Amino acid sequence: MKKVVVIFGPTGVKKSEIGILLSKEINGEIISFDAYQIYKYMDIGTNKIRKEDMDNIPHHLIDIVMPNETFSAGLFKEFAEKEIEEVLKRDKIPVLVGGTGLYMRTLLYYEPPKKDEKIREILNKKFERFGLEEMYNELIKVDPFYANKINKNDKKRIMRALEVYYIYKKPFSEFLKEEDRYDSIKFGIIMERKVLYKNLEDRIEKMFQNGFIEEVKFIKENFGFSPTSIKAIGYETILQYLNGNINLEDCKKLILKKTKDYARRQIIWLRKEKNMIIIDRTNKDDKIVINEIREIIKERWKI
After folding, report:
1. Which residue, 257, 267, 228, is CA-closest to 99?
2. Domain boundary among 175, 208, 223
3. Cα separations (Å) of 108 from 27, 72, 73, 300?
4. Domains contained in the chain, number
5. Pairing with 267, which of 12, 98, 192, 287 sits 20 to 30 Å away (CA)?
6. What are phi and psi of 279, to 5 degrees?
7. pTM here?
8. Which domain holds residue 142?
9. What is the pLDDT of residues 73-104, one digit of tens each?
10. Are residues 280 and 144 in the same domain?
11. Is the domain of 86 the same as that of 121?
12. Strands 93-98 and 28-32
């Protein structure tokens, strides 16, 4: 079975730095599984690593689509599988770094169920007639496990889960429980919450200083956003600010709140993930964390 290392963690925990140092130690290359760093020009808002900070470690699946293009877990799987094969051909270890749990699971565990345009049309008509609340209530009946994991206002995931159920007569959550496809060692990086939140507060202030508003304005004027790219935290909120719907102070507060909420959900996902090795990096510098990870990898793979 092909070997991969996974570095998973909430936004603000400094996964990129750990990924780079680890790649140096184990002769690895980084494959990003961030749902929004795949988009070109969405740099500041996604806290995308700069080329000069990559320290000569190859990074893959960053800047691969335009902001007005849609992207999905299935597409990520397709791209990531190819990158993993190429990295292995170079006799290196793929180091997956990111915080998008669905992308990680899609790649490591299960085949995305097929789509059906006719079923989707039926569901869309049902949605137009009864509304999202009724669709979510239906999902609770047929797949309570998945329904309780997603936001009741997340139309895209609600409709997709119902589509899968209509096609297969099998809950979407069952497709998330398939066996491992790789020999993966998964590390979940966490830190004390107050330290993490302070990191996020500092980062968001710095993002605005570095031109986050100008970045959003540039994308809006030159490309526009797709239904998937606009979900990146901060972009829609800044559009509200640019449209005069909220003031700058409220804009920053809302982005901070959404970012903290997202980090909290990532930590919950991390703790529920099977075979995840939790590394608490509170009061530890990167070298100490890397030493812990390296020793576990050596023991597991006997390298």
Report:
1. 267
2. 175
3. 21, 15, 12, 18
4. 2
5. 287
6. -120, 115
7. 0.80
8. 117-175
9. 989 999 999 999 999 999 999 999 999 999 99
10. no
11. no
12. parallel
